[in-house]
Amino acid sequence: MSLKGKKIILGVTGSIAAYKSALLTRLLIKEGAEVKIVMTPSASSFITPLTLATLSKNPVLINFEKNDAGEWNNHVELGLWGDLFIIAPASANTLSKCANGICDNLLIATYLSSRCPVMFSPAMDLDMYKHPSTTKNLETLKSFGNIIIPAGTGELASGLEGEGRMAEPEEIVEEVKTFFNDNLLLKGKKILITAGPTYEKIDPVRFIGNHSSGKMGYAIAEEFANRGAQVTLVSGPVNIKVEHKNITVTSIMTAVEMMDAVTKNADNSEILIFAAAVADYRPSSPANQKIKKEDSDPPKIELIQNPDIALSAGANKKESQYSLGFALETENELINAEKKLEKKNFNAIVLNSLNDQGAGFGHNTNKITIIGKNKKRSEFPLKDKKHLAIDIVNYVIDDFYK
């Protein structure tokens, strides 16, 4: 789709990445959007207002001052005008101010006055991006319903390699087009997602589990929520906090508890995503007290099979529902994934291999292949899991709705 007729406010902050705002403006205009730009005072040290005014064909606003017609720059009026507000680049300073309501320039005043959705495209050095205060501010902004376009990985202005690069203008434009297109498709849709491991009790202090961090499932949940869907996230024990208003988390510990939660919510969900790493077995008789170490032979633990949650959901799936599963394999990857696709009645399956460096449990990155019902394969290179979540959601939308 084009962006013809869409009204976009572009906020530019003080960052070396501000030069990318010129190309972003040009691309948005080329897609048919009308663009009005507001800059922080420090942003003009990196790119001139004249450049952006020429490209946008609109005056650039920087300060609370009168324009050429003798009228005050009205942040409220501008905030009401836009269909979408993009802050790109979003510096650590501006992220902090937006998250905490510190209104000391026209850009922040416009943000606080806006009634339209807001996208932030962070840009800063690696250590700044990873600092706990920046992480907290990004989580706060997401909890307000804002959309965060993940920073890219590569060479930074400091010469370091890592996360913190502002997304490329072409990527941001695709995000914008996807936003306007997919919000019509996903707004209010109910999505059920499982994530994380299950812990199967041996005794009060020990369990059978796995190394799943839940990062992939949580990233998918956030991406669906960012596009307007109502997400029920059934999660095993993980160290991830969710504050997005469109995500409801049901915390569980065991496979049986996850099975109950999925059964309760599956019928009312249009899309089912099975990203959890569910333990295949559990102890048949967990001890009520801690098992003591003895000088004799170690205790024997009898295991019984856990319910297969995805298999059960697949057997009861309606024609109007779509399901996507995950397969983490170590050998015969494609063959095993295709078998799982058929057995569990998935519409598609995401394959990742522990043999690929940087993929699988515990990493912030992953490398995947999505296999559809027709055995067609879509391969995605090693990426941050947040970026892969975008790819996975795009795949589901293209496969199910289009």
UniProtKB/TrEMBL annotation:
It holds the Pfam family DFP. In the N-terminal section; belongs to the HFCD (homo-oligomeric flavin containing Cys decarboxylase) superfamily. In the C-terminal section; belongs to the PPC synthetase family. Keywords: Decarboxylase, Flavoprotein, FMN, Ligase, Lyase, Magnesium, Metal-binding, Multifunctional enzyme. The gene is coaBC. This is Coenzyme A biosynthesis bifunctional protein CoaBC. Residues 191-402 are annotated as: Phosphopantothenate--cysteine ligase. Residues 6-177 form the Flavoprotein domain. It comes from Marinigracilibium pacificum. Residues 1-190 are annotated as: Phosphopantothenoylcysteine decarboxylase. GO terms for molecular function: FMN binding; metal ion binding; phosphopantothenate--cysteine ligase activity; phosphopantothenoylcysteine decarboxylase activity. CTP binds at D280, K290, F326, K340, K344. It catalyses: (R)-4'-phosphopantothenate + L-cysteine + CTP = N-[(R)-4-phosphopantothenoyl]-L-cysteine + CMP + diphosphate + H(+); N-[(R)-4-phosphopantothenoyl]-L-cysteine + H(+) = (R)-4'-phosphopantetheine + CO2. One of its GO terms (biological process) is coenzyme A biosynthetic process. The lineage of its organism: Bacteria, Pseudomonadati, Bacteroidota, Cytophagia, Cytophagales. Residues 186-397 form the DNA/pantothenate metabolism flavoprotein C-terminal domain. Catalyzes two sequential steps in the biosynthesis of coenzyme A. In the first step cysteine is conjugated to 4'-phosphopantothenate to form 4-phosphopantothenoylcysteine. In the second step the latter compound is decarboxylated to form 4'-phosphopantotheine. Catalyzes two steps in the biosynthesis of coenzyme A. In the first step cysteine is conjugated to 4'-phosphopantothenate to form 4-phosphopantothenoylcysteine, in the latter compound is decarboxylated to form 4'-phosphopantotheine. Its EC number is 4.1.1.36, 6.3.2.5. Binds 1 FMN per subunit. Its cofactor is FMN; Mg(2+). One of its GO terms (cellular component) is phosphopantothenoylcysteine decarboxylase complex. It comes from the Bacteria. Pathway: Cofactor biosynthesis; coenzyme A biosynthesis; CoA from (R)-pantothenate: step 3/5; Cofactor biosynthesis; coenzyme A biosynthesis; CoA from (R)-pantothenate: step 2/5.
